[in-house]
Design brief:
The radius of gyration is 25 Å and the shape is globular. It has 14 helices and 30 strands. The strands form seven sheets. A six-stranded mixed sheet has the order 6-5-3-4-7-8. A six-stranded mixed sheet has the order 9-11-12-13-14-15, with helices on both faces. A six-stranded antiparallel sheet has the order 25-26-28-29-30-27, with helices on one face. Among the domains are: 126 residues, Rossmann fold; 111 residues, GMP Synthetase, Chain A, domain 3 (2-Layer Sandwich), CATH 3.30.300; 112 residues, Hotdog Thioesterase (Thiol Ester Dehydrase, Chain A, Roll), CATH 3.10.129.10.
C-alpha cells in the first residue's frame, strides 16, 4: 500500500456485514457510492443509505406479501431494496433475465420491486418502482429505526443454468454469503480498502452480488453506481486506485480495443470469475492493465472454492475453509461452510489433486463424449482450433442424427477473416477438417461448421448452448460467407430479446456492388439482410421474413459510416433501427413479421 493511503486505511472502520450494521456503524458523511467517475464528485453517503432504506421499508411493509422479485439496473437502488427487504424479513427472488414472460413464470405471486421500466402490459398493482417511491415520500420518518437482519433466517433465491441450460432455483442465506465475503477480506483487505470498486458483472448473480454489492458494503469501500457495460468505459476511470469485478468475456473484448497508454487507472486490482482465463489472455491483461487478474473458481451452489493468479502458476489454491476430494469419475467434490444443508457438492469438473492441496482443472465430465465408441474431449478439439491462431472463440458440441456426431462453431479473429475472405464455405470447412486430422482420428472430426461474428451468450458472457445448437437447425448453410461485408462488430448491450451492435460497412463490401459506381450507398435490401443476419446470430434462431409491416429509409448509408443497430425480437416480430452513434441521425427503421 502506498504511504499516502496508510492514514486513510487506519481510519476505515472494521468489517460491518449487512446483518450487523446499525445507524451508528459509519459516519453520516461516509461515502458509500459514486456516480460516473470518482472525480465527478457525485456521491451517496451513509446518511442517504439510512434515510432511503427507511422509505423503502415503509412501502414494503404496507404492501404486504412475503415474496418479492427484485430487479434493479442501478447498484445503489439494488443495495437499498435488498437491505430493506431483508429488514422486513421478505424472501428475495433474483434473476438478470427481465423478459416479462420469464419473470411471470418464476415469480409466481411475488411483488416486483424495480427501477426498470417494463412494458405497460407487464405493470400490475404488484409492481413497485423504486425511483417513484423515493421521490414521493419523505426521508424523515423511520430513520431512527434500524431493524436487525437475522442472517440465518433469510431466504435469497438465485437462478443458475447448471449443466442442462435450464434455469434452476438455488436458495441461499445471507449467512453463507457473508462468510464468503469475510474470507475474501481476510486475504486481500489491505489491498482493497484504499481502492474504489467498479463492476461489469450483473449483481443479480451470486458473483456480482458478493463482489459488487456485499463486499464493498461490508468493508466500507465506495462502489460505482452504474455497472460498466462496455470496455471503453474504463477510460473514464481518470484517477488511479480501483478494484474491478469482471468476467473473462468482458476482458477479452477489452484487450482487443484498449492499450496500456489508454488507461489512467494503473495496476487496478482485478477479480475474474465465471470462466477460466487462458494463459495468453491473462498475460495480455497483465500487459495492458498492469495487473494479472485474480481468478475465483466457484458456482451459485457453492460460492467461492479456490483462486489463482496465473502468472504465479496455473494451479488453483482452495480457500482455507474448503475441503476437496474426488468421486469415482475424477470430478471435484466440495465440502464447505458456504454450502447450506449439504454434506458435499459434486461438480462436473475433472481435476488432478496435488500433494500440496492445490489442484489442476482438466475439463468437464460432460465435455467428454463417445463418437463411434471413441472417447474425445470437446475441450481438446476447441483448444486445437484456438492453437491455429485464426480464431478468437471455438465451441464444439455433440449432435444427434442417425448417429451422434460433432459440430463446431468458430469465431474468426482478424487473421482468420483475412485468410477466409471470399472463400466458399465448403473450402473453409475443408481447411478445418484437414487441420484437425493432424491431431485426431477422422471419426471424431466435426461434421458441421458455423462461423458467426460472435458466439451467442448471456449478459454474463456465458455461452448459450441451446442457441449454439439452433445455429445448425437450418440444414445446409449458404455457400457464401459474410467476411468482408462489414467491419468489426462491437457488442454494446444484450438482453434476452434485444441486442445493440456497433459496426461499419467497408467500401470493399459486396453490399455496395452496383450501388453505385463512383458514389456507393448501402441498398435497402442490404440493410434488411443485416438485420436478419444479426437477429439470427444473437437470438439463436433462423429467421425467415413473412411480412414487412413497416419500414422507412430516411438517410443514405455510405462506406465507413459508423452505425448502431438496435434489434428487438418479440412475439413473432423483429423491430429494428439503424442510426448514427452519438447523434440523432436515423438511417432506417421498421417492423417485420418472422417465422
Amino acid at each position: 500500500m502506498s504511504d499516502k493511503y496508510k492514514s486513510i486505511f487506519k481510519k476505515i472502520p472494521k468489517n460491518i456485514p449487512l446483518s450487523s450494521f446499525n445507524k451508528e456503524s459509519r459516519n453520516l458523511s461516509h461515502i458509500m457510492c459514486y456516480e460516473g467517475a470518482w472525480s465527478d464528485g457525485i456521491y451517496k453517503t451513509w446518511d442517504d443509505f439510512l434515510k432511503e432504506t427507511s422509505v423503502l421499508r415503509k412501502e414494503i411493509e404496507s404492501a404486504g406479501n412475503d415474496r418479492w422479485f427484485l430487479y434493479c439496473e442501478d447498484c445503489w437502488h439494488f443495495l437499498l431494496a435488498f437491505t430493506a427487504l431483508l429488514q422486513c424479513q421478505k424472501e428475495i427472488i433474483l434473476s438478470s433475465n427481465v423478459s416479462p414472460a420469464y419473470i411471470a413464470e418464476i415469480k409466481g405471486d411475488a411483488n416486483l420491486l424495480t427501477d426498470h421500466i417494463f412494458p405497460v402490459d407487464s405493470i400490475s398493482e404488484k409492481t413497485f418502482l423504486i425511483p417513484s417511491i423515493l421521490s414521493e415520500n419523505t426521508h424523515e420518518e423511520g430513520i431512527n429505526e434500524c431493524p436487525k437482519i437475522t442472517s440465518s433466517e433469510t431466504s435469497i433465491v438465485l437462478f443458475t443454468s447448471g449443466s442442462t441450460g435450464t434455469p434452476k432455483a438455488v436458495k441461499q442465506r445471507l449467512t453463507e454469503l457473508e462468510n464468503d465475503n469475510a474470507f475474501i477480506l481476510s486475504m486481500w483487505k489491505e489491498e482493497l480498502l484504499f481502492r474504489k470498486f467498479c463492476s461489469t458483472v450483473n449483481h443479480h448473480h451470486i458473483y456480482g452480488l458478493l463482489f459488487s454489492i456485499l463486499l464493498p458494503f461490508t468493508a466500507g469501500i465506495p462502489f460505482r453506481r452504474q455497472r460498466i457495460k462496455v470496455p471503453e468505459e474504463f477510460l473514464s476511470l481518470t484517477d488511479t486506485e480501483y478494484a474491478i469485478v469482471t468476467v473473462p468475456a468482458f476482458l477479452k473484448r477489452g484487450v482487443e480495443i484498449l492499450s496500456a497508454n489508454d488507461l489512467a487507472a494503473k495496476s487496478p486490482w482485478i477479480f475474474v470469475a465465471g470462466g477460466v482465463l487462458d494463459e495468453g489472455l491473462a498475460r495480455k491483461i497483465g500487459e495492458i492493465f498492469g495487473f494479472w487478474p485474480i481468478e475465483i473458481y466457484g458456482s451459485t451452489e457453492t460460492s467461492g472454492i479456490a483462486w489463482r493468479q496465473s502468472d504465479k502458476g496455473i494451479e488453483w489454491t482452495p480457500f482455507a475453509n474448503v475441503q476437496l476430494s474426488q468421486n469415482d469419475e475424477g470430478c471435484l467434490v466440495i465440502r464447505s461452510p458456504y454450502i447450506k444443508d449439504m454434506a458435499c457438492f459434486e461438480t462436473a469438473d475433472t481435476v488432478e489433486l496435488l500433494e500440496d492441496g492445490r489442484f489442476l482443472l482438466k475439463g468437464r465430465i460432460d465435455s467428454v463424449v463417445k463418437i463411434e465408441e471413441k472417447r474425445i474431449s470437446l475441450a481438446e478439439i476447441e483448444a486445437r482450433i484456438a492453437q491455429s491462431g485464426l480464431a478468437t472463440d471455438a465451441f464444439v458440441i455433440p449432435m444427434e442424427g442417425r448417429r451422434q456426431y460433432l459440430a463446431a462453431v468458430i469465431v474468426f479473429n482478424n487473421k482468420g477473416k483475412e485468410k477466409f475472405n471470399n472463400v466458399e464455405i465448403n473450402n473453409i470447412n475443408k481447411f478445418w477438417r484437414e487441420y484437425l486430422l493432424n491431431y485426431f482420428e477422422n471419426v471424431v472430426i466435426p461434421k458441421k461448421w458455423r462461423y458467426p461474428e460472435l458466439l451467442p451468450a448471456d449478459i454474463q458472457g456465458k455461452i448459450k448452448r441451446k442457441a449454439l445448437m439452433q445455429l445448425f437447425s437450418d440444414g445446409k448453410q449458404s455457400m457464401k460467407n459474410d467476411f468482408g461485408k462489414y467491419n468489426k462488430v462491437k457488442l454494446i448491450e444484450k438482453n434476452k430479446n434485444s441486442v445493440i451492435l456497433e459496426f461499419s460497412i467497408p467500401n470493399s463490401s459486396p453490399y455496395f456492388d452496383g450501388h453505385f459506381p463512383g458514389f456507393p450507398i448501402l441498398p435497402a435490401v442490404a440493410q434488411v439482410d443485416l438485420v436478419v443476419h444479426f437477429a439470427s446470430e444473437h437470438f439463436g434462431i433462423n429467421i425467415s421474413i413473412t411480412k414487412i409491416n413497416r419500414i422507412k429509409f430516411m438517410n443514405i448509408i455510405r462506406p465507413e459510416n459508423p452505425l448502431v443497430l438496435f434489434i428487438e425480437a418479440d412475439k413473432g416480430n423483429i423491430d429494428f433501427k439503424i442510426s448514427s452513434p452519438g447523434s440523432e441521425t436515423v438511417y432506417s427503421s421498421g417492423v417485420m413479421t418472422i417465422k
